[in-house]
Amino acid sequence: MTFSSLSYHNLTSYKRHGISPHFLDWGNQPQVFKKYDGIDPLDLPRNIAVGDIALSRVLKKGPEMPDTTELTLATLSSILLLTCTITALAMHSGTPFYFRSVASAGALYPFELYVLTQGTKGLNDALYHYSTKRHALSPLREVVASARNSSLDFFLSSIFFRSSWKYRDRAYRYCLLDTGHLLENLVLSLRAHGLVLRSTYDFDDSLTNTFLGLDSFREVCLAVCCIGNEHDPCPALPTEEKWGTLPDRVKEASVVSTREVKYDTIVTMHQASSALNPGPSQGIRMDELLGVRANTVVEIPQVQGWADKMPYPEIVFSRRSQRNFVPHPMSQHQLESIMDGLCSDPMPAGNLWPISTGLLIANSEGYDSGFYLLDRQSRKLALIREGNFQRDMARICLDQAWLANAAAQVLFLSNLEALDNTLGPRGYRHAMLEAGRSGQLLYLIATSLGLGCCGIGAFYDEEAARLLGLNQSSRLLYLVALGPVKRVLGD
What we know:
The chain is of the alpha+beta class. It has two domains: 31-272, 3-Layer(aba) Sandwich (NADH Oxidase); 286-488, NADH Oxidase, CATH 3.40.109.10. 28% of the residues lie in helices and 22% in strands. The strands form four sheets. It has a seven-stranded antiparallel β-sheet, with helices on both faces.
């Protein structure tokens, strides 16, 4: 079977009374930390270099460092701490569980992070794997330095079985969303450090996976983020003759369980999305392709300063999924800060913004209940239909009743047929990764405002499309619920 964005999404859609039983094999639970036998990691310092900057400032600040700025080990360490770190430890049935600063479906953490350093003071020019648990770098292969100025290339991968152990064929969705979560933290960290960055989902899959030493039937690179000269390509891989040799057992590190199950649907969809497409020659507005029509349109105000409860680094370390929502109104300032934050996040380069952002507002001061579309480029909010849809959407989200108490639900939507027609199956990566990025941003914004936040990737897909009035080619990709929770009332 040849997969497209729409065919894979439909094939892995949940249908009421149609989900086949699935029992988790707890004895075969995948490892959530990657390790390389025989490689000694380099422990990193734990100092944060950006001070008590506010998240709202991070979103709106531009690059401060010139392209010729020297990169150091201390700077890289600070970047990595604010990208992914252990935030707490709990014991579950005698087994340690590590909370992280990055959201993940089912707390399965399929993502991994690699960095290619060139001209970084205190480090050899080499490819490294980042150990979140230890906050250390494992050197994988040396590279011959290029003539470029100092640069860092970050590679974000995902290990399929970590998610498919629980979610089976649907797991590719979560691998993409979770990698998007990680990418957003990385992008914000680089911006907080004042660095020029470019991110891309379009690169040579085979060459990149080979460079990283991945078993590409188990683990694949999904996104790349680069800093350095803004005119350099991203990724700027050295030519193969400048690659050092990988240790023999590097590929084995992609194995995370003794009895892994290979889900052919995931592998086939990923392989189908490996072909690169130049993209549309003219801009495409996803809002206009969903099959819904605006009734009224208002402009989103610029919010000069959010009521941040804590500085940006503390927000990253404090992020949690919280779902104990209470039917208490969100203030107008809080809702407008959320929308302002979404509008402040930079748009992807090129002519295609692959997702549309919707809101189901139910309990907020200053705004009527209804289904809205938020145009993040023009900063306009369009009312599509009045009404409180929270209970209906809670039922669609596998009957999770707690969702009905959320003050707002943010929706990430896309016309998947339009993606296929412009980027081919690769467009699915673009859409799901961008949805994940936006979801992680919402987690951080909610934390900064003292609100609860919880992302939902499991729902009855066709029912969600019908509730929202989407056309046959458009689907809900991800839902993030926000609002007051029990612990913050009275704060």
